[in-house]
Amino acid sequence: MSHLSENANPLKVKNIKDRLTNCMPNSANVEFIILPYFKTIEEIPNKEDFHKDLYDFFNQANPNSTIAILCSPIFASDFCSLLNNNRAQLKLWIAVKLETPFLKKEGLVQRHAALLIFTRYKESLRHTKTRIAYTYCPFCHKTTKDYGGKKHLYHEFGTLMSDVWRDITVNFSSYPYDIVRRLQDLFGLLEYESVNIYDQRNYYRPVLRPAINYRRYSNIENQYPNHSVLINGDCFEELDKLPDNTIDFCFADPPYNLNKKYESWNDGIDIQTYFEWCDKWLNSLARILKPGRTLAVLNIPQWCIRHFRHLITIMDYQDWIVWEGLSMPVRMIMPAHYSILCFSKGRPRPLPGLAHQNHALLEKKAIETLSENYCIRSACMKMRKRLKHKDTEITSNLWWDIHRLKHNSRRVDHPCQLPPNFMYRLIALFTRENEIVLDPFNGVGTTTLTAHELNRRYIGIELSEYYYKLASERHREMEFGLDPFRKNGDAPKAKNSPVERLKKQKYQVSKKVLQLEVKNISKQLGRIPTRDEVAKFSKFPIN
Ligand SMILES: C[S@@+](CC[C@H](N)C(=O)[O-])C[C@H]1O[C@@H](n2cnc3c(N)ncnc32)[C@H](O)[C@@H]1O
């Protein structure tokens, strides 16, 4: 089995054949609803009635129930964006890998489904502590993730589970056995008895080949002067200065309102005010974008759902890319992914990154994804390259091979700068050479620097003078031939976590040997030993 749940009392499985509207889910259980994989909103039959059936089901469910819905990303975002929070709380959007990915017309390979986890209760999600097995690189056979020589400190079986499930897959034409098995254990708590499965795929069949009604725009495009700029200012004022239909790709990585410590921005405002603020800059970005081009917004899934609600009223849905950005999950079942919500202005043009073949090397690398489970240890990567071992594949809408910059020597003084590979990929996919990329929240310049390297023009707007200066400095460095993403000796001042790091210490006995010794004593005692117990049982002196 690919997961292991601690203290789980696996739930029974009940397959309920009836239509959702005839079911009365009134005792506390896990209710698992399986829907068809709708590829477009137009494929959803009688959308309002369908949503109402689901709302009614939510209303009847027991206040302690957990409700899981398996569906496509477009259905998930549309349904959640209209759901009233009083009916149920969306606790997690789990991205599950599709067994059979498919190519979206003129777009990316579609590779994930959404497993939405709702509860009727407001507190945090109740579930068992569940781990997924370590994976091993098919080339060097070491763990896919580099645990920095600390694997001995981790659980024998694997890591705690995140909200991207790639170790199992789902096929919408068959019974999702692996997901059911996982729900049985993940929610195998004493308060629940069964996972009740409502397979609704026959009751809500997709509308066959519906017409897609893209918004229509005139083909008039405005030309931006043939240069690039970094601007220190408020994006609202600066975007207002730009004419309609001017930009080839807008990318926004806004503050997420999650209390990050920015230099000149309060990242903890009232959530309603935050969303209204977002709607305003989304409107401006939609206005300045050329027809057929893409606006991509990066945010946590819950906030992207709210962006979806607004964007669907002014633009056309293009894709929902899942970016598994953490190198490893660290808490219980932890939100590890971000969403990149892509909307186009009218019918999207074919993705330039996939439609053109003559890419420069950097662009070619950006568009390729490292095949699953290959590690990124430099020795292994070098050997694979030397032996011409094929370890890449075409990028889909599920990204796992780019990790966030944490306390990393490549970071500069900003609490949440993006990794350059992330921006190379987005820009290479959505634009052509010499086109113009705009980022209204340019931070320390990841977007504009990568755009420059890929020979695109750019406009980067940043409110903070400090970050603007850091970005300008990095652009200057690049002009002098320095790599702005190089490792630098200084630890960045801006931190994501308030934990102070200890200085490196020297030990007579290696740290790993000592850690293993304490681990062994713990095993013998069945708990973490006290200092006195370590002194008593260890073969090393306590000092
Ligand atoms: C999540 S960070 C972007 C980081 C950037 N992607 C990078 O890699 O450096 C959001 C940025 O938006 C800036 N910001 C906040 N409000 C702004 C506004 N009204 N106009 C322009 N920038 C703003 C913040 O100062 C912060 O640097």
Could you explain the architecture of this structure?
It is built from 14 helices and 20 strands. The chain has 543 residues and is α/β, with parallel strands linked by helices. It has three domains: 3-199, 3-Layer(aba) Sandwich (Rossmann fold), CATH 3.40.50; 229-356 and 394-479, 3-Layer(aba) Sandwich (Rossmann fold); 504-543. The protein has an eight-stranded mixed sheet with strand order 11-20-19-12-13-15-14-18, with helices on both faces. It is globular. The mean pLDDT is 90. The structure holds S-adenosylmethionine. Residues 234-235, 253-255, 262, 265, 414, 416-418, 440-441, 443-444, 446, 461-464, 467 line the site of S-adenosylmethionine (SAM).
Strand order, biggest sheet?
Answer: 11-20-19-12-13-15-14-18
Bound chemical compounds: S-adenosylmethionine
The name of the CATH architecture of the largest domain is 3-Layer(aba) Sandwich
Question: Spans of 5+ residues with little confidence (pLDDT < 50)?
Answer: none
The CATH class of the largest domain is identified as: Alpha Beta
Q: Which word captures the global form?
A: globular
> Distance N terminus to C terminus?
43 Å
Please give the radius of gyration in angstroms. 25 Å
Q: Look at the structure and name the CATH superfamily of the largest domain.
A: Vaccinia Virus protein VP39
Please tell me the overall pLDDT. Answer: 90
Supply the helix-strand structural class: alpha/beta
CATH topology of the largest domain: Rossmann fold
Q: Provide a count of the helices.
A: 14
Q: Give the tally of β-strands.
A: 20
Question: How much helical structure, as a percent, in the residues?
Answer: 25-40%
Tally of domains: 3
Which sheet architecture does the biggest sheet show?
Answer: 8 strands, mixed
Query: What percent strand?
Result: 15-25%
